[in-house]
Structures are given as C-alpha cells and as structure tokens.
Amino acid sequence: MKIALIQTNPVIGDFARNSDAVLRWTAAARAAGCRLAVFPELTLSGYPPQDLLERSDFINAHDRHLLSMVEKITDIAIVIGAIEQRSGSGKPLYNSALFIDDGKVKACARKQLLPTYDVFDETRYFEPGGESAVVCLDGERFGLTVCEDIWFEGRGYRIDPVRNMLAAETGKPDFLINISASPYHHGKISERNAVFSSLCRRNRLPLLYVNQVGGQDSLIFDGRSMALDPDGGIVAAAPGFQEAMIIVDSNNWQPAPGLDLPEDSIATVFEALTLGVRDYLHKTGFKTAVIGLSGGIDSALTAAVACRALGPENVLTVSLPSPYTSQASIDDAQALAANLNCGHETISIGPAMDAYQKTLSPFFQGLAEDVTEQNIQARIRGNLLMALSNKFGHLLLSTGNKSEMAVGYCTLYGDMSGGLAVLSDVPKQMVYELARWLNSKEEIIPERIITRPPSAELKPDQLDQDDLPPYEILDPILQAYLEEHASIDVICARGYERKTVEDIVRRIRVNEYKRRQAATGLKVTTKAFGQGRRYPIVHNFRE
C-alpha cells in the first residue's frame, strides 16, 4: 500500500485555510496513487491552540469544517489530527487521530500521554484517551498513536500506550503510525531519531511519523516526517522546515535512493530562525521588518536572518550612531547592508541626547554620569525605531541574544523594544557559530564584526567584558543552570569560580522582571525564556 506522509503548516484557528490545505494535499496523494494520506496532530486547528480551546465558538467552527472536509474525502483514506468533544466528568475534549475513509470517520485514537513539561500544558484542556486503536485498511493493520504516546521511554509515565496496544486482543499491527506536533530545538533531531529507532527495534515494527511544520509564536516545528524499518533505520525522510509530502510503500521498507538523513547542525538552527521570522510576520499580517544595525554581531545576524526569511527588499536596517559610536561600527553596518542588498538609513541620536541632557539637567545637576545616561541612549534608539515601525508598518525585530537576556545586559524600552526577539534563545557563542557558518561560502557579515570584541558602545571604550565574564565562561554556566537545572555546587565542581557562578545566578534571578516584558522570542534550545520557563518575579529563595 502506498502511503503519503504530509507535513503541513497550519494557521491556528484558520479552519477554512487549513481544511483547504488538507483537501489539496489529499488530492495530490490520490493522484500519486496513494491509498492512505497521513497528516499531523491537530491539523485542522493548528497546534497549540491554547485557551482558544475554552471557547465554544472555536470548537463549533472546528467541528463544522471537519464535517464538511470529511464528506469531501473519497477514493482515499486519511489519518488526521483533530479535536474531539466528549461528555462526562473530566476535561471536555480529546486530542485525537481520526481515521477517515469513504467520507466517514471509521476509527479514532485518543492521545493518552498528555505532556505538561516545558512549553506543553495539555492536561489543562484534554482528557487522556483510553485504549489505543488498531485500524485495518485493505488487509493491512496499523497502530494509530498521537505524538507523546510513543515517547514513553525515559519520560516517567505510568502507562506505555504502544506496549498496551501490542498486548491487546486486537493483535500486533503491521506497522505504527504516529501523528505529531513536535517543536524543534537544537539537538531534537538526534533525540527524536534515537527514541524512534529504539521503539522500532524493541517492538520489531516499522514506524511512520508525520510532524507539523511552521512557526507558531515562539515555537518552531521542523517537520522532518519519516519512515523507519523494524531495525530502527530511517528509510524515508521529508525535508525540514517546509511543507512536503513523501510517499512510502508498506510492502517495501528499504531506504530510498539518495536518502538525505536528518541530523543536527548549526545550519538547522539558522533554518529554524528563518522559518520562525517568516511565519511570525506573515501569519500576523506583516510584510516588512526594521532592524537597528549597531555594527555588532547580534544585529548583523538578525538582519541576515530577516533578509533570508523575507527577502532583502522587505528589510530596512537603520544605523543610529551616538558620539560614542566608532567609525568602524558605522562602516561595518553600511557594509553589511550592502552585502545583504537591503535598505539602510542612518539617523544620528546626538541631537536627541542633547535634548534629554538639557531637560534633565536641573534634576541631575551635580551627579556623575552612570548607567542612566547609557539607558537613555538605548531608549532614544528604541523610540526612533518604533516610530519607523508605526509610520511604515514594519515589524521591529529586537536583536539581543540569550546570554544578555539571561543576566539583564539589556535595556527595557530600549534595545528590548520590538515585536519579535529573533535571537533571544541563541547564546552568544552560538551567535558567533551561526555567523561563521553563514560566511563559510561567501562573506556576508563583514569579518571585522565577527573578530572585534563585543561592545554596547554606550560610553567611551566600553566592552561587554567590563561588566560580564567572557562568553566562553558565561555561556556554559548559563546552560548548566537554565537548561540542565544544575545547582551552584554542581556548576562550581566543573571548575568555575564560585563568586562568578553566584553572581551570574543572582543576575538571572533579579532580571526576571525584564524578561517578562520582552518581545516574544524564537525557541531553539531546550529551555527558552518564555512559556516553557515559569519563575516568579518576586521570591526569596537562595541556594
């Protein structure tokens, strides 16, 4: 049996668009001779719909479009993720995989393992399902599962849906199907491959996996749908970060010629950021972006991502020099814009700084300059960039990286201004790695931007390392504390100075209020600042 694995990029709540996409892809699968087409988790609503699931009008609109779509599916069967209403005690909804054939829903599998870690909060909306479903189609039997139900291993769940399915009286299926909405982070591809390979070997069954693709707020879904043989080897794989359809034959679990196996690389991070920017703007109705270009590496990389995502003709970069800005920064910003072939303007903030100084001088008289004056510069820039955003309809992209966000090395209503924080989950050392990868074929980011010591240039001869540890020390400590949840003692045991570690942890704690007011950021690590990290602003816990 020929089976189409179809990874779609839905827009949450756009039921007409999403159902039309299903019908269009189904027609393509039918034309290719497929008997079955498989779509991702919650295809019709998009994932994750969050508290929209609490609105009856949202559920009713979903059900109307589902009924209309089901009636139009003929001469081919599909598996698709959908919301399913239920009655009785517990939550009012299931997260289900529907098997549709001959214009009717013939079977369903309800998601049993509802994740509540990191960005997930499914028990808020859904009731866990009961028994798994084994479906028969043209004499072949497949076990139907939803996303987390095949991630039992190592997650601490009390039930194993796949094992229970295989132990049921329905008997062992010929292969497994899993529909998913699994967000990307750097390292997820290897993790996913290992889990799926182990599942196949343990149960001696092939697996067909179909994943959502696209950007949704902070989340990025990479697709990379695939088929694995009973030995856990990948025999077919869809490309990452784009809608696609691949076709497999259930009678032939052999690798396709020229198979490009998915793997983690720094290039996938760049692809993820590009997709995240493109979908965030386009799904919210923006077509163009504006970026403050400082001559530093963070804004340079942000501009490069934006130009790749939107096209350089839709990106405006703006240099906003102060009396402290070096000529090298001004020249490098211009050179970068020329390399990217995007729009570029220069607005000096010197006159605005003078106006602020004159206005505040009666209050600041006799007081030494400090971080206050530095923050005023950043806020002038933020105001000017927001004015350009408002006047011309550009979305302002903020450029701060994860290392800065973690320790509060950023200015509220200044460089934090914007509608999307592109690099807020990218540590500084990864910023450099991405820049070098981007330049590996041709110089896009001027080399001096990469090699110069990083500086905010808000006072004479300022360097980041005046206020922060070197990034080769800062970033590993941040990863240990934020992503591994390691204690201060554990981090110090790795050879880091206790005073440094304690200061970094203190900065993380006291700057929670800043991060709460930051623009939405794109998630590319295992723990981003956003909905997956929930710490109180006010607390007195000390290690």
Describe this structure in words.
The protein is α/β, with parallel strands linked by helices and 543 residues long. It has 2 domains: 2-251, Carbon-nitrogen hydrolase (Nitrilase/N-carbamoyl-D-aminoacid amidohydrolase, 4-Layer Sandwich), CATH 3.60.110.10; 270-464, Rossmann fold (3-Layer(aba) Sandwich). Helices cover 36% and strands 18% of the residues. The chain is built from 16 helices and 19 strands. Strands 5-4-3-2-1-14 form a 6-stranded mixed β-sheet, with helices on one face. α5 (266-283) packs across α6 (297-310), α5 packs across α11 (428-438) and α6 runs parallel beside α7 (327-340). It is elongated. The termini are far apart. The model has no long low-confidence stretch (mean pLDDT 95).
Present the secondary structure layout.
Blueprint: E1 2-7, H1 15-31, E2 36-38, H2 56-71, E3 77-85, E4 93-101, E5 104-110, E6 133-137, E7 140-146, H3 161-167, E8 175-180, H4 188-203, E9 207-211, E10 213-216, E11 219-222, E12 226-228, E13 234-237, E14 244-249, H5 266-283, E15 289-292, H6 297-310, E16 315-319, H7 327-340, E17 343-346, H8 350-364, H9 371-392, E18 395-398, H10 402-407, E19 420-421, H11 428-438, H12 447-451, H13 471-483, H14 488-493, H15 498-510, H16 512-516
Parallel strand pairs: 1-2, 2-3, 7-8, 8-9, 15-16, 15-18, 16-17, 18-19
Antiparallel strand pairs: 1-14, 3-4, 4-5, 6-7, 9-12, 10-11, 12-13
| Outline type | elongated
Output the number of helix runs.
16
Total strand count, please? 19
The H-level CATH homologous superfamily of the largest domain, spelled out, is Carbon-nitrogen hydrolase
Uncertain segments are none
> Share of helix among residues?
25-40%
Largest pleated sheet: 6 strands, mixed
Number of individual domains: 2
